[in-house]
Amino acid sequence: MPREPVNVVDRGAACLLGGALGDALGAPVQYLGWADIQRDHGPEGVLEPPRPALVTDDTQLTLFTADGYLRAWVRGRTTGEWDPVDVVWRSYRRWLVTQQVAAPEAGATGLVSDERLYSSRSPGLTCLRALAADSPPSPEEPHNESSGCNGVTRTAPAGFAPSAEIAYDLGCRFAALTHGGTGGWVSGGAFALLIHLLAVRGRPFREAVDQVIGRVLRSDPYTANTLNRAVVFAEEHRAQGFESVRVDRLGSGWTGPEALAIAVHVVLVYPKRSQFVDAMRAAANHSGGSDATAALTGNILGALHGTAALPRDWLAGLELVDLLTRLGSDLGRSVTGQEFDLHRYA
């Protein structure tokens, strides 16, 4: 059975907020090796987000995914027309405009009216090139072969779809709008399914991970096996009592499967609400895609535990808190049938 509606709404907000916190924590060190991180931040690495805690394009695109999905949901409710992939594609194209001009056009409405989003945070060339195309790609007709992590890092909102299978399909298709490599879009579906099972269905984390691996195995054995290694390494960690988490055993996190596997591994090692900070630090402090791996970890922990798990001192310095809270909450309201302001997404 799904969780109580109020809990799903809270977990929707926490999912987006937690991802943004991880994004901001990992952003300053995402291109550094572990030795360089220690040199710049001390022997334990980066311990908290900077102030202000600025997000990257990963969080910006997550917001536009949420906005696009909610626009599609509202259209489906009011007109019966349901095409979330096309609506999210057009939402991503609106994000692309924010990277090209300095401020909103006069009379702009919706998410693109917020001048804070008109800030280029070093978006990946794969995304920029894909979104500049005339038509949207799909898993069946990809425009490139990239399996980079920037596909999976924005698919959490798809987890608030009405069913597990729809969440998986939308996650795959949203990621495939920019990343055509199989691992690039399958990891997006896997992540959306995981978020759905945690936030909407209330599954225990390990049970949810096993269900995701079983579903992904039908689409991409490589991604499934990468996630399975995350489980095996977590079991080894507990059995052998390692003092620190070695996420490098799973790769650098630059690809979608690796980034998701690192996040899953970290949460398996630090599953408790009280371990949010420990998990985030472990996810960020490694040689590789620190912002992506920490963002995914934050999304998962938010979906699992709700806003009570998020450190208030970290949130105090985070940008876009109001947008993240509103869009995340509305995702939760949409899937539980609660009322919200539909005019925001008309």
Automatic annotation (TrEMBL):
The organism's place on the tree of life at top rank: Bacteria
Sequence segments annotated as region (Disordered): 132-151
Keyword rRNA processing attributed: no
A Pfam match: ADP_ribosyl_GH
Presence of the UniProt keyword Hydrolase in the record: yes
Family, similarity comment: Belongs to the ADP-ribosylglycohydrolase family.
Protein name per UniProt: ADP-ribosylglycohydrolase family protein
Organism: Saccharothrix xinjiangensis
